[in-house]
Amino acid sequence: MPLRSPVEFLRSLRDGRRVIYRGRAVEDVTAHPHLGRGAAHVGVDFRLAHERPTEPLLVDRDDPDRPASRYFTIPRVAADLLRRRDLIEHATREARSFVPLIKEIGTDALFALMIVTAQMDRAAGTSYQRRVRAFYERCREGDLAMAVAQTDAKGDRGRRPSDQPHPDVYVRRVRETAEGVVVRGAKAHTTNAVFANEIIVLPTRAMADGDADYAVAFAVPADTPGLTMVASPRGFSATSEFDNPLSSRYSLTESLTIFDDVFVPWERVFMCGEWRDAGALAKTFVEFHRFTAVSYKTPLLELLLGSAALIADYHGLLGAAHVRDKLARLIMYLHTGRGLTTAAASECRVREGIAVPDPIMTNAGKYQFARGYHDAVRDVQDLAGGLIVTGPAEEDWAAPEVRALIEPFLAGRASVGAEDRLRVMNLIRDLVASDLGGYLEVLAIHAEGSLETQKLTVLMDYDLAPLKQAAARAAGVTG
Amino acid sequence: MPLRSPVEFLRSLRDGRRVIYRGRAVEDVTAHPHLGRGAAHVGVDFRLAHERPTEPLLVDRDDPDRPASRYFTIPRVAADLLRRRDLIEHATREARSFVPLIKEIGTDALFALMIVTAQMDRAAGTSYQRRVRAFYERCREGDLAMAVAQTDAKGDRGRRPSDQPHPDVYVRRVRETAEGVVVRGAKAHTTNAVFANEIIVLPTRAMADGDADYAVAFAVPADTPGLTMVASPRGFSATSEFDNPLSSRYSLTESLTIFDDVFVPWERVFMCGEWRDAGALAKTFVEFHRFTAVSYKTPLLELLLGSAALIADYHGLLGAAHVRDKLARLIMYLHTGRGLTTAAASECRVREGIAVPDPIMTNAGKYQFARGYHDAVRDVQDLAGGLIVTGPAEEDWAAPEVRALIEPFLAGRASVGAEDRLRVMNLIRDLVASDLGGYLEVLAIHAEGSLETQKLTVLMDYDLAPLKQAAARAAGVTG
Amino acid sequence: MPLRSPVEFLRSLRDGRRVIYRGRAVEDVTAHPHLGRGAAHVGVDFRLAHERPTEPLLVDRDDPDRPASRYFTIPRVAADLLRRRDLIEHATREARSFVPLIKEIGTDALFALMIVTAQMDRAAGTSYQRRVRAFYERCREGDLAMAVAQTDAKGDRGRRPSDQPHPDVYVRRVRETAEGVVVRGAKAHTTNAVFANEIIVLPTRAMADGDADYAVAFAVPADTPGLTMVASPRGFSATSEFDNPLSSRYSLTESLTIFDDVFVPWERVFMCGEWRDAGALAKTFVEFHRFTAVSYKTPLLELLLGSAALIADYHGLLGAAHVRDKLARLIMYLHTGRGLTTAAASECRVREGIAVPDPIMTNAGKYQFARGYHDAVRDVQDLAGGLIVTGPAEEDWAAPEVRALIEPFLAGRASVGAEDRLRVMNLIRDLVASDLGGYLEVLAIHAEGSLETQKLTVLMDYDLAPLKQAAARAAGVTG
Amino acid sequence: MPLRSPVEFLRSLRDGRRVIYRGRAVEDVTAHPHLGRGAAHVGVDFRLAHERPTEPLLVDRDDPDRPASRYFTIPRVAADLLRRRDLIEHATREARSFVPLIKEIGTDALFALMIVTAQMDRAAGTSYQRRVRAFYERCREGDLAMAVAQTDAKGDRGRRPSDQPHPDVYVRRVRETAEGVVVRGAKAHTTNAVFANEIIVLPTRAMADGDADYAVAFAVPADTPGLTMVASPRGFSATSEFDNPLSSRYSLTESLTIFDDVFVPWERVFMCGEWRDAGALAKTFVEFHRFTAVSYKTPLLELLLGSAALIADYHGLLGAAHVRDKLARLIMYLHTGRGLTTAAASECRVREGIAVPDPIMTNAGKYQFARGYHDAVRDVQDLAGGLIVTGPAEEDWAAPEVRALIEPFLAGRASVGAEDRLRVMNLIRDLVASDLGGYLEVLAIHAEGSLETQKLTVLMDYDLAPLKQAAARAAGVTG
Fold first, then answer.
1. Strand locations in D266-424, DSSP E?
2. Half-sphere exposure of B235 (CA within 13 A, CB side)
3. Rounded CA gap, C469 and C448, in Å?
4. How many inter-chain contacts (A to B, CB under 8 Å) are there?
5. Is D23 near chain C, with CB under 8 Å?
6. pTM of the prediction?
7. Does the N-terminal or the C-terminal CB of chain C have fewer CB atoms within 10 Å?
8. Can you tell me the distance from the alpha carbon of D375 to that of D333, in angstroms, rounded to the nearest whole number?
9. How far apart are CA B382 and CA A449, in angstroms?
10. Closest listed residue to residue A150, CA positions, set A254, A235, A233, A72
């Protein structure tokens, strides 16, 4: 049933999954006052493909009998990665800069699993690759929504999985049976898992010898017994569309995803004890996923830049030197990240037949984005002015006598009315000075790995030897 | 009645003032669900002095018959400014980093008015100084709470007051009578005016010839007819003490303060048409007020640093190199600002008998604070981890079965329990990734003048000539 | 005579050109003690093509009868620009990070002239395009070395060309004759003009109505009467290969290029009075030339990174966290710039049949390079240690008894001898803490336009309107 | 013989000391073409005191019978430290920003030795304090010039002194005799030791158990047998006063100071094996010395700022927004460092009767200086323009016909002649884009400890516990 409609997608979420929100079990996530909004938002991916089924950016019709969502297209060459980037940008722009992340991360994980299990099978004679391919076909055929649970609870971050005060702070194999494996533990901030059909679980880091029980990868349906998702209300709890035009309508929903002795049949197990391969899987996933990450940042930065330019215009300040300076820097910032996705795709490496974005370019892009985000926020706040956090509320504007009182003082340059200016200030506050703004700042540095992990990854991938040798030659060092 | 008790202070606010909050008139600000919290908070200044009336830091007993709040002590030497700094730090620390600003800004304005009116009177034979002194005595004797309204609505920011599309976007003189002057217009983000007894109004910038009507300074009681304060709900609307331990309990309340043909008797008028002096008054106020500003930042930065160190400890990461790097930078940042207040006080200049903090040091301190704040926020967010914006809510923790489910996964290093860790993460989110966090970021760059204004002030004050001459000598340029 | 040998190239420079060095006329630049070194260095472009005439990167054999240096290949598609980037990187790497700039800039100018004169001819019926094409063929056929003189002396930088105290501080048309035009003025820092066969002159900025005499573009042979080049000794005057392994062997030679009533025949005049087109020509040249610029930075940054890693290794510090942090940042920095050239080529626009690198990506790349260079220098200096500027000289090392005395104290970690460590420290000092190092820093921010000009260019090119409209929609602003 | 004249000082340097420069032994440092210049420069301290013997800033006459150089005044209160700061600034300004460092560092070391030996004696019953006091009196009475040798050669920087491949890469005790101790090893970059009467040697770091032989502190006269100083030519080898107005006239002379079995009599030994106290001594010295360091930076930053403002003026750009922005930032930068010395003095702690500058403020000041130096350099280079590294040489200017040719093109705005502009550009190149400029950059980050050491020091000194507790309270964490 490829190309599910949004209605079909939403219907599929009413399946008995166990979701907790603010201390209470949620009967139906699509009907819940808060989560329902998130469900509607992430449906954008289905809506777009359903509305324009012949649009190549959205739908892959290479096999005309089996059209599928473009997200499932396995990248073979640079152009495939560029189109994937464009698709992610497009869907995110449609959703006012909020990436749906209902197929993006899942396919990132599937591509990584294909590559790493091929290597594992070749080295150890296992047959994981076949399982991954079968699961991939299932997701593609069913046009399924997927979440990826990777980051463990971690406990003492200075210790390895098997060296923790509590044994479950990394997801682990509890026991194996003839039919499958039983797992326990929790994964933190799983994005949109509450709206997924399938939860793909990956290890979060390289493992050492004693950590074999923690080297597990698998997939489970969202309604699997023993699986509970505690959804976080952070970032998107606003209710006034006037005051918070974004965070009252869109949402990314993160959950603490708990595996309480969940049984996984062997067909859905993709790694189980192979601790030497855990690092490769974590890293390969991240090579795809950081590329996705940088791709979905562009629409957010476009919105920041557009808002900043608009409010500067409303203030009558578009000609001021310091304003132009800030706008120029925002443009440079936006296009540095975007340009590096182009470069990452162009310089991809093909592994096991799959095009992997260049990890140095990808990490450089992610790093530049994360490193510069707070500066960009500061520039936007600077251009917007203090009134974004000291101005009147929706109710003030709605009360005619209050509105009459304040209206003259909220207008901008000639012909810019108070309401327009107030709406743009509200948009900017929502983006950069609110619960949502805080969420986005933290997301900028922590999602898809912190700044430190990007540095680590780059150092791991980089061959310094030839550059050291060239330097030695330039220095006249011989031998 | 010096040294009013908090109760007396609160009682004085029930005076018929016209305050609007979320579209509705507020009967009694002290009894209002949201504003009442702010009133209680700003009362800290009264509470401290009342509780410890013999503490020199809090109470000035130089004239034993007329003890007064220390804020009113006119600084004569560096030590007075240092004590003023210490007082501001102390009260702000008592209030979990939220400066009460109920006497600080008011006395900043009074000191500036004393200096500038002395110069004006000397130059033009006016008698403003006497009025300022009388008003000062009234405030001191009555232990009054004062707000300062300075920033105008501004309209088109590229145009001067008299060149605006709408004539009222800067507060202006509408007409004079034998008894006083009638003023109209609005001042933006007046801090805690809704909790003040007196509103002191100052011009916001230098004026030019045609702007004489906009060169007005005066003071009015908060319940003056024609005065309306539209209080902003931004930044401090949280309600759960668990989720938002700060923004649910403290608040700074900004208002749009509207003067709808307000009559001011001559005794309360401190400038009226003297456009040549408007810039000097605006600037002198700012010389005091930015010193106040840098002083009240210290407790906030202490709280950021303490929280960051605490959560790094909970995570088991205090020994990690990148963690230590970030903590060291936070320490440097905190003490750079604080050190510059020491320097600004130590290098004060005495004008008209009043010690004025060195403007270069003051502005350097404010600039370094503002320039570095977002970096500090990023470092704190980085240390805290993504869970601060993806974690469970108060209701999850309150529901026993949910708590049981999630508790093992929220604990930190050995002996750090989930609740403690969750509380500290909530504190950090409240500080750096929330409506409050956004408010604080915007405050960092806009309150007491934006980064651009600090650069402008420094350039205005700085005599580059001797340094240029020394450079010319070093270059061998003669003549 | 395509594919000239280095010998032929050098011979062509002995042509009576007027070059001044340190106050004296230079008879033969190829035989001059200082300039001869530069001549040898820039010959690398000829050497490479001559040595490997079948290498497509170096030689264009699309027309087998007329092979030509690859630099002359007119880019038609993205791949051409990528190959051009690779060629520039290759030649620069061959020359230890010092770009020869003997064909790069010249062809940048020719491509720009082709585009802009096509537009000019179409609009005004002129026939400049034909002249440009003929001149291009001449250069290509003759395998000529070309310099570009663009930056005028400028005088008062706050004034336009026609509004200067001295009329000649921008190069100008003095008079026209039937045969051509007579020009006067000077161009600053013309790179390697003293080693060029042809000097191409372009306007440096947009002009206004009264500036018509300053809107001139043309080409003259280096030995044209009236042309004098005052070569600068800065940056590359070192003489000890031990102490300064780079600046004693390589050089970029900048000159003040003076036109003292130089006659240019019409066939070599490409703009003469069309002030409206001066800006477009200046800007189009820069679109190519900044792409060249970012391309030739890569080998320099590779050398910085390689040297930094090597010295950290010698110090025994490769495992230290702060060292790894700095190396990771250097990697990110290097590949951000390089990635943006890939993006600039990939997203090129075809104008008049010529592929022009995307100006936003190009400028972002140049800006990120220039903005980050001093940070990179600081990191390299930090890793290298103070000894690079406090250590012994070549003569100390050459004196056996001094060497014996100091040798034990200059060794690094086990197995790293004193001489190797000293050589690498010397390389690093030469790169980042010397006359050359200073030259490179200034080059980083001023060559190919300062940071301010990159911001200006980006703002000029960027269409903010769609982003402002999208922001308005997101804010709910209608109409 | 207090208050020696410069002549007496220079005479005292002709004592048979063993100095090597560029591979050759130097007979008389005062008569040497290069070193003689340095000797003349550092004599400024003697000249000033000799010329103005009643000036309290320069001469301490507290005991009228025993006037002494003010540098020797032991600081007892904040005002003493401020005067010391002012003295260092004054002498450095007199020498065009080049600190003489002939009494500054030596007294820093003596104050530290007084404090730490008092503690050592009290704890262990030794009598080092008496020796230090006697040595101090000798230096004070003799008005001696002193150098401090602290930084060891270090070898493998990842290993402790006793764990090195070569045993001598840290200075060490070889053997003890009844009369004293014999030491061996080398200290790197000892500033102006070649011009000192006494060399004071301190340990460079904290030591561990096996390092006892490396825990040595002592003083030796510069002509002690076995002591050799290999002076570095770096940074100050320029010869043209026109091209390099600073580095051709001033110099700081660093040496590799080698102890080849030097005998030190017990009276001059201040630590010998007490490895537990090595860290305290190194650190206490640095507490004084970084205060000295930040103090002597002010004149350099004044010169940078003055040069930048002057050249911007010459260019006709003083009114440009981006120029004003850069000047404002340079002002902030300069006064941040300077303000923190004021704060460090004001918040000093008295230890063993001696006022020690507050280490947090001192390190914050040093860190801000070092962290911002390259940014300041970039801004100055940016303001100066590319011509500083591409312009003509002294010989061009000296040749009348060349001068006539180039003069019109080197002038600035109206009334700014070419020679003045060229001189200022030369000054700026000398400061920020030359061998000297590179030396100053490296000095900025490495002298008196690198950025990393400042962070380490601050973390070591800082008591995070109260801030963590306050954060815990704010979070509602109990117990």
1. 269-272, 349-351, 354-356
2. 30
3. 34
4. 271
5. yes
6. 0.97
7. C
8. 10
9. 11
10. A254
Q: How many CB pairs under 8 A join C and D?
A: 270
The CA–CA distances, whole Å, from B14 to B8, B287, D287 equal 10, 33, 56
**Strands, sheet with D216-221, edge to edge from the N-terminal-most edge strand:** D146-149, D198-201, D216-221, D269-272
Q: How confident is the model at residue A1 (pLDDT cuts 50, 70, 90)?
A: low
The 8-class DSSP code of residue D210 comes to: G
In this complex, is the C-beta atom of C455 within 8 Å of any C-beta atom belonging to chain B?
no
Q: Give chain C's length.
A: 479
Q: Does position B479 have pLDDT exceeding 70, yes or no?
A: no
**What is the residue whose two structure tokens read 């409609």?**
A5
- Going by their DSSP bridges, the two strands A349-351 and A354-356 should be labelled as antiparallel
**Positive or negative, the Cα torsion across B22, B28, B33, B39?**
positive
Q: How far apart are CA B342 and CA B365, in angstroms?
A: 10
The alpha carbon torsion through C365, C367, C370, C372 (nearest 10 deg) reads: -80
Size of chain B in residues: 479
- Reference D343, options B61, B347, C257; nearest CA is B347
Chain C residues within an 8 Å CB radius of D396: 20, 22-23, 230
Q: Using only C-alpha atoms, what is the Rg of chain C?
A: 24
Q: Which residues between 323 and 342 in chain C have a beta carbon less than 8 angstroms from any beta carbon of chain B? A: 325
Helix (H) or strand (E) holding C198: strand C198-201
- Asked if A390 has any chain B CB less than 8 Å from its own CB, the reply is yes
Between helix B321-346 and helix D321-346 the angle, nearest 10°, is 90
DSSP output for D265-284: EGGGEEEES-HHHHHHHHHH
Tell me the nearest-neighbour CA distance from D408 into chain C, angstroms: 7
Q: How far apart are CA C28 and CA C38, in angstroms?
A: 12
Mark which residues 271-290 of B lie under 8 Å from D by CB.
Answer: none
Surface-to-core class of residue C123, CB atoms within 10 Å of its CB (0-12 exposed, 13-18 middle, 19+ buried) = exposed
Q: Low-confidence residues of chain D, pLDDT below 70? A: 1-2, 479
R_g of chain B, CA atoms, integer Å: 24
Question: How close D178 comes to chain A (CA, Å)?
Answer: 47
- Looking at residue D149, the DSSP 8-state letter turns out to be E
Task: Give B 227-256 residues with CB within 8 A of chain D.
Answer: 241-242, 245-246
Strand partners, A175: A182
Query: Among residues 303-322 of chain D, which lie with CB inside 8 Å of chain B?
Result: 303, 305-307, 309-310, 313
Q: What is the pLDDT of residue B461?
A: 85
What per-residue confidence (pLDDT) applies to B448? Answer: 87
The number of C-alpha atoms within 13 Å of C367 and in the hemisphere containing its C-beta is 25
Contact criterion met (CB below 8 Å) for D30 and D36: yes
At C400, the amino acid letter reads: P
Residue matched to tokens 């009234």: B138
Checking ipTM against 0.95, whether it exceeds it is yes
Q: Does C477 touch chain A (CB under 8 A)?
A: yes
Q: Do D234 and C406 touch (CB under 8 A)?
A: no
pLDDT in tens, A301-337: 999 999 999 999 999 999 999 999 999 999 999 999 9
Please tell me the number of Cα atoms within 13 Å of A50 on its side-chain side.
Answer: 15
Token pair of A461, please? 């991938």
Cβ atoms of D455 and B284 within 8 Å: the answer is no
Q: Chain A: nearest CA to D321, how far in angstroms?
A: 6
Banded model confidence at residue A358, pLDDT cuts 50, 70, 90: very high
For chain A, which chains pass the contact test of at least 3 CB pairs under 8 Å?
A: B, C, D
* Main-chain dihedrals φ then ψ at residue C329, nearest 5 degrees: -65, -35
Cβ separation C234–D258 shorter than 8 A: no
Closest CA to C405 of D258, D101, A454, D125: D258
* C98 vs C430: CA distance, rounded Å: 13
Residue in this structure with the two tokens 């270069």, named with its chain if needed: B360
